[in-house]
Design brief:
single chain; mainly alpha; globular
């Protein structure tokens, strides 16, 4: 295993922690800034929408720049944003800090996915992407529960100071472990990268990403309220319940990466379909503590089993210009995040209760199943997705 993948995973860990940890601390943040639950939720939605801007804008702006310095620059932005959040005297400054940290998110994962894929043999590219995203899933297993516990014990700001420290470690790791990468081919201009969006299948991938991820986060954004107000758990149990969700993420990500190297669309259809069933069951049985625990684990597992396949599918259909499309798909993940958080917040604000985000998430996920099934039924108008061994032809190798 190339050591550079470990460095990328550390960066993914820190960025994933920034994105997810606030969900477990939402009640504390809302109380500190004297805002409502739905208003506090905008610290999640605002982050997600800013990821989209960074994923497209920063990725496009850095298309012809050497990828290693770009990755390092993204980490610096990440550190600054989290430090500003930790120092925020009010809600507005906290939102600015979240936005600054979010700008690096999409570009880091978009460019990082291309770099990770180029560090391994062609038939192992989806697995390499999954390994980088392991940092994201590990953030949920270890980081989010610990960060939630830390924030509950010492104040939520302490968590963001720790995240900034992780950013410093990621910077050192990328600087020392990621190999020197060749400057992107001069012929690969922004106009060339934009050609990837002529593919209808790239757009299908982006739509499915928004809906599948949006469905999961529709249910997960307000999970602290669901677990305490509906399932009857004490607030102190929330960090440890999130461990189960995180374990599900790790297992789902690893299995999804392996299966995606065999069949991308098959993996997606099964994972998204089961995710829909899990969300419906969770919403219906949320008053049962045991059912909530099982559903939380399965929601993480099947929700993240889609990630390597969705990222790989976008890059494969983007052909010889995967960087901007890869970044766009990271943006699509966060459009889904924002969609789910916004829709779930509407359900709560309308007085539909703390299970309403789960029902809403199930509805969004059902739309993803329909889009994907319809695409497969049409026989894919464009060329069928290549197997794992063929995927490498579309991706630029990096120097060993």
């Amino acid at each position: 295993m190339p050591l550079g993948l470990i460095a990328l995973a550390v960066g993914a860990f820190g960025i994933g922690l920034t994105e997810f940890v606030i969900m477990g601390l939402l009640p504390e943040v809302a109380t500190d800034f004297a805002v409502s639950e739905s208003a506090a939720g905008w610290l999640i939605s605002g982050y997600a929408l800013s990821v989209v801007v960074g994923a497209l804008g920063l990725t496009a702006a850095t298309t012809r720049l050497p990828r290693k310095p770009v990755l390092l620059g993204m980490i610096v932005l990440f550190i600054l944003g989290n430090a500003l959040t930790a120092l925020a005297p009010d809600y507005g400054i906290a939102m600015i800090g979240r936005i600054v940290a979010a700008l690096c998110h999409g570009a880091f994962f978009g460019i990082g996915a291309v770099v990770a894929a180029g560090l391994v043999a062609p038939e192992k590219k989806a697995g390499a992407i999954a390994l980088m995203f392991t940092g994201l899933t590990a953030a949920n297993v270890f980081g989010v529960p610990f960060g939630t516990f830390l924030g509950q014990q010492f104040g939520w700001r302490s968590t963001f100071w720790v995240i900034a420290g992780i950013g410093i470690l990621a910077f050192i790791g990328i600087l020392t472990l990621v190999p020197k990468l060749p400057r992107p081919d001069a012929a690969v201009r922004l106009r060339h990268e934009l050609r990837a969006f002529r593919s209808g299948q790239v757009w299908v991938s982006l739509v499915v990403t928004v809906l599948a991820y949006g469905g999961m986060f529709g249910g997960f954004t307000y999970i602290a309220y669901t677990l305490t107000e509906v399932s009857g758990f004490d607030s102190g149990a929330v960090p440890w319940l999130l461990v189960l969700f995180g374990i599900g993420l790790v297992i789902g990500n690893a299995v999804g990466g392996r299966l995606a190297d065999r069949s991308i669309d098959g993996t997606l259809l099964v994972a998204v379909s089961v995710l829909f069933v899990v969300l419906v069951a969770f919403a219906a049985l949320a008053t049962s503590g045991i059912a909530a625990i099982v559903a939380l684990f399965l929601m993480g597992g099947f929700g993240f089993a889609t990630v390597p396949a969705l990222q790989s599918r976008t890059m494969v259909y983007a052909g010889s210009a995967p960087t901007l499309a890869s970044g766009a798909n990271i943006g699509a993940f966060n459009v889904g995040n924002a969609l789910g958080a916004w829709a779930g917040g509407i359900g709560i604000a309308a007085g539909l209760g703390y299970t309403s985000p789960l029902w809403i998430g199930a509805g969004i996920t059902a739309a993803a199943v329909i889009v994907l099934a319809a695409t497969m039924a049409r026989g894919r108008r464009n060329t069928a997705a290549p197997s794992g061994e063929e995927q490498g032809a579309a991706l630029e190798p990096v120097q060993r």
